[in-house]
Amino acid sequence: NSGGIVIAQVGRILNEPAAxxxxxxxxxxxxxxxxxxxxxxxxxxxxxxxxxxCEPTPPKQTAIRLSPLPPGPRRIIxxxxxxxxxxxxxxxxxxxxxxxxxxxxxxRGLLAEVTLTVESGPIGGMPAGGLSFGASHFPEAIIDQxxxxxxxxxxxxxxxxxxxxxxxxxxxVNVSKFGxxxxxxxxxxxxxxxxxxxxxxxxxTSGKLECQVVDGRLTIxxxxxxxxxxxxxxxxCFNAAESLKRDRxxxxxxxxxxxxxxxxxxxxxxIAPGIDLERDLLAHMDFRPVIREPNPMxxxxxxxxxxx
Length: 308
Known about the structure:
By secondary structure, the chain is an alpha/beta fold. Helix content is 14%, strand content 27%. It is built from 6 helices and 23 strands. The protein has helices at 73-82, 100-107, 145-153, 188-194, 240-244, 277-281, and strands spanning 7-10, 32-35, 90-93, 115-117, 122-123, 126-127, 136-137, 141-142, 159-163, 166-168, 173-174, 177-178, 181-182, 197-201, 205-206, 210-214, 217-222, 226-227, 229-230, 249-253, 257-262, 265-271, 290-296. The strands form 8 sheets. An 8-stranded mixed sheet has the order 4-3-9-14-20-21-22-23. It has a 3-stranded mixed sheet with strand order 11-10-19, with no helix packed on it. It starts with 6 loop residues before the first strand and ends in a 12-residue tail after the last strand.
């Protein structure tokens, strides 16, 4: 309508008409086709093609079998966040740290009890991670992204787990800009505003953080070079105070502590066994959170995967 040119890249050209119910872009809207070669039309950034991403679960397969999430901060955070899911939940898992929750849910045999979704369109199954994020193993359905966001914006999510680059004293979260890096906000705003229960996932500090678990106790071997709990975030992508007005449950989960945003402010609710409050937490925060009687983080989140 504006006089532009539409060019579509395709994997192959058929000699017969496509089934009309499978057409997503009518031919009258396309001016030119580019036939891609091998390696130029991959299914995801990480895989040329994986049939798991477009097929239902095989009849004889009762569980999705993948290698377990290895020990480390990512596993601790994912395991603790997985504890917050409830049977019957419709869930969104964000990119980055929350990806691991799907692996933990599969390990625990929970995939039949919750419905995991990804903003790109898959519903059900187990969301893939890494460079294949956006796909799901054996999804129940794949809808287009605008329809998925209509569902999210309409209040369809019971629970969401999202990443967090910065968190401030008011519980606000920044994921879009930190220092010279501009990542953009993506679907974060839609999801964080619509989910009934919300968990933000991320390491306590970032950059070269090293830690280990011995006998169920967490030790920080090397602290991260960048603080994430700041007096004020560089950009506000999530306003905790506004969300609390709608009586929403908001948690912030790290490898060494769990915080909750309450009417009194950001409150420390759990500390990992082996972590010293002053040395390992408060010394690396720009503000002092509300501290009443924090509990130990559950011991099972520090356990190694079975067979490790």
